[in-house]
Amino acid sequence: HWSRGWRKGPSPLPRKPMGVNLRVQKRLASAVLKCGKRKIWLDPNETNDISMANSRQNIRKLIKDGFIIKKPQKMHSRARCLKHLEAVRKGRHTGHGKRRGTREARMPTKVLWIRRQRVLRRLLKKYREQKKIDKHLYHELYMKSRGNVFKNKRVLMEYIHVAKKEKARDKVLQEQAEARRLKNKQARERREDKQEAEKKK
Fold first, then answer.
1. The model's pTM
2. How far is the C-alpha of 46 from the C-alpha of 34, rounded, in Å?
3. What is the dihedral of CA 154, 156, 157, 161, to 10 degrees?
4. What whole-number distance in Å separates Cα of residue 20 and Cα of residue 96?
């Protein structure tokens, strides 16, 4: 019933004494100081003087006297956050319990692929410009990189060294074979000349 628990008589809790209402002064001060009302501090010892101020000019005077102050901005420190990020970079706090997304969501394989390709292609371009590899070897290695043959830069560099050695060896063998061919040709020509000379006699 609506009357249940209702009792006549004064409230059992003592009422707080009514203070001076400074809502208008706070509003004017926030407008003058260009901040929110929650940032305004009114001197509790000067409430009578403050309550008399009913214009912006009076408020400016009280601000000048130091009875009304704009509270400083509250600190939002990033020290703890930065410390945590530094630890995460070292590999802390990244166990199974801290992971939210899937492996693919946390670090997409496509991003890893793009990074690897850029590293390998940058190396190939540098070597080609420095004349360490010719355009034919460059193209061959470029296509091999695209075909996922080299898993990192070190493997590619090792492959280049081996390829260059093999190429140099093939070149030497080719030159030797050419020299042998030329030598045999000259010997054959001399032999034929000799035979011709003998026939003429």
1. 0.58
2. 22
3. 140
4. 59
Could you give the CA distance from residue 147 to residue 145 in angstroms, rounded to a whole number? 5
Local structure of residue 44 (DSSP, 8 states): G
Alpha helices by DSSP H, listed for the chain, are 23-33, 47-52, 56-65, 79-90, 103-106, 109-129, 135-146, 153-200
Q: What is the per-residue pLDDT for 12?
A: 59
Place of tokens 């390829």: 163
Q: Of 80, 53, 81, give the one whose Cα is nearest residue 68.
A: 53
Angle between helices 109-129 and 135-146 (to 10 degrees): 170
CA distance 125 to 128: 5
Q: What is the mean pLDDT of residues 71-90?
A: 96
Amino acid, res. 184: N
Residues pairing with 70 in the sheet: 40
Tokens of 104: 């693919």
Distance between CA 145 and CA 139 in Å, rounded? Answer: 10
